[in-house]
Design goal:
single chain; alpha/beta; Rossmann fold; 2 domains; six-stranded parallel beta sheet; five-stranded parallel beta sheet; 10 helices
């Protein structure tokens, strides 16, 4: 096995790694502080497209996690970047919240229900039958079908909630058209994120709590991968997959000392 290169940039999932149901996971504050003290490039990633990066910055700050807006990368931002690369200045019919609509506005997209180039499906707590019917008819009329992420369920204090992947399956069943998913595990989300912070996959690490999105995306992007056991994947689940993370740890607290501070890097 080739010797692994030193990690000079870090990507970490948010839910299940740094926070759980609105509460910081022990060690998350120390991890973020260590990252900021190190000066190394880093991103906090989330497949949640509901919130803007500024919203998430405020939410994390209230939990004691000081993550700058520029260090937050969402599936909505990755989707907007993808569409801007594919068809600059295009049009879209959007089912989603401010995180997605703001990202599309910011890249110059016009949001419309009149012959749009794309139907873009994101996460929302208020999926309406009327909006889904409109999306189905527009896709049948020729609009391309894009989704922010394939997660079938999302967490809540009351239990799992249907998420974008489940709603996408409904639309696919009605139209016969499969969507393109821009978020994890699509390595495109990782690569666009790495580009945003000027990092390279061979010297970057991805931390996540899900084998099917976080670890898979990091693996396919050519990164080292760390699975934490504070989220959806337990030890017994790992062998269900034909791939493995580079390292399995109990929690984010176990990774704090892996981040090199400037004086440590100088001595190494």
């Amino acid at each position: 096995m080739a010797e692994r290169k030193p990690i000079t940039s870090w990507l970490t999932d948010m839910d299940g790694v740094l926070i759980h149901e609105g509460t910081p996971i022990p060690g998350a504050d120390a991890f973020i502080k260590r990252l900021r003290d190190s000066g190394l490039p880093f991103l906090v990633l989330t497949n949640n497209s509901i919130y803007t990066a500024r919203d998430l910055h405020a939410r994390l700050s209230r939990m004691g996690l000081d993550v700058p807006v520029r260090n937050i990368w969402t599936s909505a931002l990755a989707t907007a970047q993808f569409l801007d690369d594919q068809r600059p200045g295009g049009t879209a019919y959007v089912i989603g919240e401010a995180g997605l609509t703001t990202a599309l506005h910011d890249i110059g997209y016009v949001l419309t229900d009149h012959a749009p180039d794309y139907v873009v499906l994101g996460e929302t707590r208020t999926y309406s039958f009327e909006a889904l019917t409109k999306a189905i008819r527009l896709i049948n009329g020729g609009a391309r079908f894009i989704c922010t992420n394939p997660d079938e369920t999302g967490p809540s204090a009351e239990g799992p909630l249907p998420a974008t992947g489940s709603v996408a399956a409904l639309i696919t069943k009605a139209t016969g058209k499969e969507p393109y998913f821009a978020g994890k595990p699509n390595p495109l989300m990782m690569r666009t994120g790495l580009n945003a912070i000027g990092a390279h996959s061979e010297t970057s690490a991805m931390i996540g709590d899900r084998m099917d999105t976080d670890v898979l995306a990091g693996l396919e992007a050519g990164m080292q991968t760390f699975l934490v056991l504070t989220g959806l994947t337990g030890v017994a689940d790992i062998d269900r997959y034909p791939f493995r993370p580079s390292t399995v740890v109990d929690s984010i607290a176990d990774l704090v000392d892996l981040i090199d501070l400037p004086d440590q890097a100088d001595r190494s």
